[in-house]
Amino acid sequence: MAPWGYSKENGPATWHKDCPIANTGVRQSPIDLITTGQTCAKYDSNLKPVIVSYPAFSEATFLNNGHSVQFQPSAGNLSELSGGPLTKKYKFEQFHFHWGNNDSEGSEHRVNGKMYPAELHLVHWNSESPNFSSFQEAVGSNDPHALCVLGFFLKVGAENASLKPITDLLSKVKNAGSSVSFPGKFDLKAVLPETLTDYYTYDGSLTTPPLAECVKWIVFKEPIEVSTAQMEAFRAVDDGHGKPITGNYRPPCPLHTRTVAASFK
Ligand SMILES: CCCCCCc1ccc(S(N)(=O)=O)cc1
Ligand SMILES: [Zn+2]
């Protein structure tokens, strides 16, 4: 079977062939975050702010893997995540993006059916579990919270100076399979809103194969602004079949018996 992707032939509707959980899973991601009505997100006053400790990365690889662009620091990185709904400390693994062909589509999560032009995912794994001691092992562990992914919506507005080092690098990884070592330091903390207090959180999965149901999702209410030019830079990245990646987002999945908690009213 051709490797998975986002085209008609190998896109989300075909993933069940290699990954049955795509259709049989009851905690698949992404989802539509509904804020009013029956199945809406429920305010939980016990939810604390998310705490990140992201010292500037000094060594990292920026890669176009044909279905996204991914920033992965070298193994020595000490970036950590805790707080929010988490009871353990998580280690940073990588961040990557999902985007669309125009500003009305591109994010994986939706809010009352609304899509944003892109979504940033910061991927972490539980570094305090006795059952695994690497990201790869965490993914295969069947632990319901082996991973924690922070999701941030991107919306079009002012140029984002903190993300400029990343969007300026996109032309260097235009071809699928290409990667560059990230020049200099990158301050991820500067990309994020100051206070990480307002978010939705629920139990879900990876949004791409293997679609493992091991993710505690934390999706922030506050979008991050990027300029039109920065959005366009994502749309020029190729998918390995001589075409730009113009929509690497999975449609929303059924909630089943899950509830979504909100840290804000
Ligand atoms: C051990 C091999 C598995 C690699 C799984 C890599 C992966 C990480 C995050 C996401 S996402 N979009 O849910 O944040 C999807 C896939
Ligand atoms: Zn993702």
From TrEMBL:
<dbReference type="GO" id="GO:0004089">
    <property type="term" value="F:carbonate dehydratase activity"/>
</dbReference>
<dbReference type="InterPro" id="IPR001148">
    <property type="entry name" value="CA_dom"/>
</dbReference>
<comment type="similarity">
    <text>Belongs to the alpha-carbonic anhydrase family.</text>
</comment>
<dbReference type="Pfam" id="PF00194">
    <property type="entry name" value="Carb_anhydrase"/>
</dbReference>
<keyword id="KW-0456">Lyase</keyword>
<dbReference type="InterPro" id="IPR018338">
    <property type="entry name" value="Carbonic_anhydrase_a-class_CS"/>
</dbReference>
<protein>
    <recommendedName>
        <fullName>Carbonic anhydrase</fullName>
        <ecNumber>4.2.1.1</ecNumber>
    </recommendedName>
</protein>
<dbReference type="InterPro" id="IPR036398">
    <property type="entry name" value="CA_dom_sf"/>
</dbReference>
<comment type="function">
    <text>Reversible hydration of carbon dioxide.</text>
</comment>
<dbReference type="GO" id="GO:0005737">
    <property type="term" value="C:cytoplasm"/>
</dbReference>
<keyword id="KW-0479">Metal-binding</keyword>
<feature type="domain" description="Alpha-carbonic anhydrase">
    <location>
        <begin position="2"/>
        <end position="264"/>
    </location>
</feature>
<dbReference type="GO" id="GO:0008270">
    <property type="term" value="F:zinc ion binding"/>
</dbReference>
<dbReference type="InterPro" id="IPR023561">
    <property type="entry name" value="Carbonic_anhydrase_a-class"/>
</dbReference>
<keyword id="KW-0862">Zinc</keyword>
